[in-house]
Structures are given as C-alpha cells and as structure tokens.
Specification:
The protein is α/β, with parallel strands linked by helices. 62% of the residues lie in helices and 9% in strands. A five-stranded parallel beta sheet has the order 2-3-1-4-5, sandwiched between helices. The structure holds shikimate-3-phosphate.
Length: 268
C-alpha cells in the first residue's frame, strides 16, 4: 500500500492536472464567446447547450460518484457563464428608458443567463423605505422619491458583471447621469407609445401614469424625455416587437460592434 505521503503527492499531482485542464477549458470559453460575437452568431444557444449537457451526462451516468460529477460540471457551467459576461460586458450595463421599455425584464434575463448581479433602483428604494413606489409618491411626493433615487444611484459604483436598471425618470437629473456614466455603459431601451401602453396598462405601480393610462399621455411624456435619453445613451435598442432574448442578443451585438470586449486569456 502507498504511504500517506505518496497518496498526498498523488492527490497534489491530480490537482495540478485539474488546474491545467480547467485553465484550458476556461480559455476556450473565452475564445468561443468572442468567436460567436465576432461572427454575429447567437450567444445563447439553449438547444445546443441541452444537447451538450445530455451528451456529457451520458459519460458519467453509471459512475458511482455521478452526483459529484454533476455538481462539478454545474459549477463549471456557472463559471463559464460568468466568463461569457466578462468577455461580452467588460463594464457594468446601465439600462435606461421609458417606463415599460423592458429594463427590468432585460435585467433579470441577463442576470439569469450570465449570472450578473442586478441592481434595480426602484426595488432598492422600496426596500429601504419599506413601502411601494405609489405610496412614496402619495405620502411624500415626487421630489422625495427623486432624492431617494439619487441616493441609490450615487452608490452604484464601478466594475463589471452588474446590470443596473434605473427608473424611467432618473436621467433627468445631471447628478444621476454623472454617476451612471461612471458606473458603466448606458443602454437605452425604446418602444413606441402603443407598445409601452400594452405592457404597462395592467399595472398600478407607476404613479405618473395612474389616471393617465393612455397612448396620448405616454407619447407626450415620452417626447419631453426622448432627447435627454438619446443624449445620455451610449447605445440604443428599439424593443418594439422584440422578445427579451432578441433584445439581449441586440445588446450583445451592439456592444461587440463597439469593440469593447476583453479577455484574460491564460493559454499561451
Ligand atoms: C418613473 C419610472 C418608474 C419609477 C417611478 C417614476 C418615471 O420606473 O421610477 O414610477 O419617472 O419614469 P420604471 O421606468 O422602471 O417603470
């Protein structure tokens, strides 16, 4: 039988091999992400992924440590998604746009698919105040809400792997814009007043639209803000008639076209 020291040495040698293979594996993740982006291929190919996972699971389905294999590969898959996010979005993404433009939906889609952290200014304000947005407007007025909004935006910070969705009116304050610009790339989501109305008409969570839930009012408010949205945005995506996965791919392709991808490639 091997001595204790020999066994430990063998384990260490295995760990070295794992590091080497992981190194290679993660570098390929970077490479394929860049390749897909540069060749305008869809980044998220769910069917392909399911096929690969099935194929992989077949290779260890009879193994006594099947569950451990599953856990390890699950963790590799999470890490791969995080690497994809770093390659595609080297900076935080700040989503701006009119109410109902799809900011929150895109934020949760990005978060689910790339394990990005989400910050939603409205949700943060509700948590801090302990009451809903309509209640804040009703009890303390819009100005108070705007102050709270600025407080949250001041704390956004820099970095990557964060998707930040700010309330539709936040861009109107210069101070907010300054912090948003410092935090990441600003992506404007737009939609026609009709599309917006279709998306928000069932909600009572937007005090600015309560009692004015119609296309004309939406178009008027939108007109007042459009120039500001465009001035602040680094890139713009029209979400009318698009699904959230389509919007996500459009964001990826615009960010890629602007040439800001990064890699930390470790392969020599
Ligand atoms: C507002 C938009 C809302 C919310 C508040 C005010 C606005 O956020 O911040 O009701 O001024 O456009 P959403 O854009 O997420 O709906």
């Amino acid at each position: 039988m091997n001595s204790y020291d020999d066994i430990m040495k063998n384990i260490e040698a295995c760990d070295d091999k794992i590091i080497e293979v992981l190194n290679e594996r993660l570098a390929y993740t970077e490479e394929i992400t860049k390749y897909k982006a540069e060749h305008h291929m869809p980044i998220l190919r769910h069917e392909e992924e399911v096929r690969q996972l099935k194929n992989l699971a077949g290779k260890y389905s009879n193994h006594p440590y099947k569950e451990e294999f599953e856990e390890i590969f699950r963790s590799i898959s999470v890490s791969s998604r995080k690497i994809q996010a770093e390659v595609l979005f080297p900076k935080n993404i700040v989503l701006i746009g009119f109410m109902g433009a799809g900011k929150s939906s895109l934020a949760s889609y990005l978060s689910e698919n790339f394990y990005m952290r989400t910050v939603e200014t409205d949700r943060e304000i509700v948590q801090r105040e302990g009451i809903s947005i309509p209640e804040i407007f009703e009890l303390y007025g819009e100005e108070y809400f705007r102050e709270k909004e600025t407080e949250v935006i001041r704390e956004l910070g820099t970095g990557s792997r964060k998707v930040i969705s700010v309330g539709g009116g936040a861009v109107m304050r210069d101070e907010n814009v300054k912090h948003m610009k410092a935090s990441g790339v600003i992506v404007l989501l737009t939609a026609t007043p009709k599309a917006i109305l279709d998306r928000v008409k069932g909600s009572t969570e937007r005090p600015l639209l309560n009692g004015k839930m119609n296309e004309d009012y939406i178009a008027t408010l939108m007109k007042k803000r459009s120039a500001r949205y465009e001035e602040v945005a680094d890139l713009t995506i029209d979400t009318t008639d698009k699904t959230i996965p389509d919007v996500c791919e459009a964001v990826i392709s615009k960010i890629t076209a602007s040439g800001s991808q990064t890699t930390k490639t470790v392969l020599s």
